[in-house]
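SAMPLE LOG
Freezer: B-3
Tube label: C17
Construct: single chain, 160 aa
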Amino acid sequence: MSDNQTDAPLFDIIMVCSPAMDTLTRAQRSERMRLVKSRGTTPELLVKRLLKSMRLKFNTHDASVPGSPDFVFRRQGKVIFVHGCFWHRHASCHNGRRLPKSRLDFWKIKLDKNRRRDLRILRQLNRLGWSYLVIWECQLNPPERIEKRIRVFLKKRGTN
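STRUCTURE (predicted):
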């Protein structure tokens, strides 16, 4: 090791050698992540528009229901979640299996926690007698197919 590298902090050496460096500055990354919404996403708004066109009555993001589901049908004891494939780790979708190229250790832990939380919430809803439907972002087209799934789900009696 040359003299100039021994004085450098280990962090700088790791960052220089890391093949998966972030291409954005810390401020740029922070700004980009701030734009990621948890409510009012495009997939959620598409489902909301569909539910309204079906003339269904529902509440949104009811905090009294575990997981604050995107859509709550209290009379039927049913809820609908609209999940983004990447954030919620949709196993049947390319976006659900891909991982970011930078800070892999951070993202793997975060995304796995999201998935475990989702499963815990679904078990909790089941124990409380709620039925649930998860609509994945990649399943939104064609809208007719989602409308049919929703109609069947809301007519069905009992829990999952």
